[in-house]
Amino acid sequence: MNVTLLYFDDCPNWHVTDGYLRTIAAEHPRLTVERRVVDTIEDAEATRFRGSPSVIVDGVDPFADPDAPVGLSCRVYQTPAGPAGTPTLDQLRSAITAGGRAEETRDA
Q1: Which fold, 2-107?
Q2: For residue 87, cis peptide bond before it (omega within 30 degrees of 0)
């Protein structure tokens, strides 16, 4: 399973998300995490970047709001504790686990 962390350097929240992804990767040896800087509007449009940080699981943004604009901004996630700059560790685990189940179904 492949996870891509899309971010831009001026967003402070990507570091927290990266730490969560490192934790999850340690739990799942088949998980690969790529980190990719999105630093131009052209990159944002090409990747459908809805803000930093964005987590892409096997090509899908599980947290995407189809009405959110594409562009270079910090992203807001709805968490159990209210709006935050990153999904929680549990939300990321759930999104990645759901992606893994879909991958297993495709491979069957």
Answers
A1: Glutaredoxin (3.40.30)
A2: no
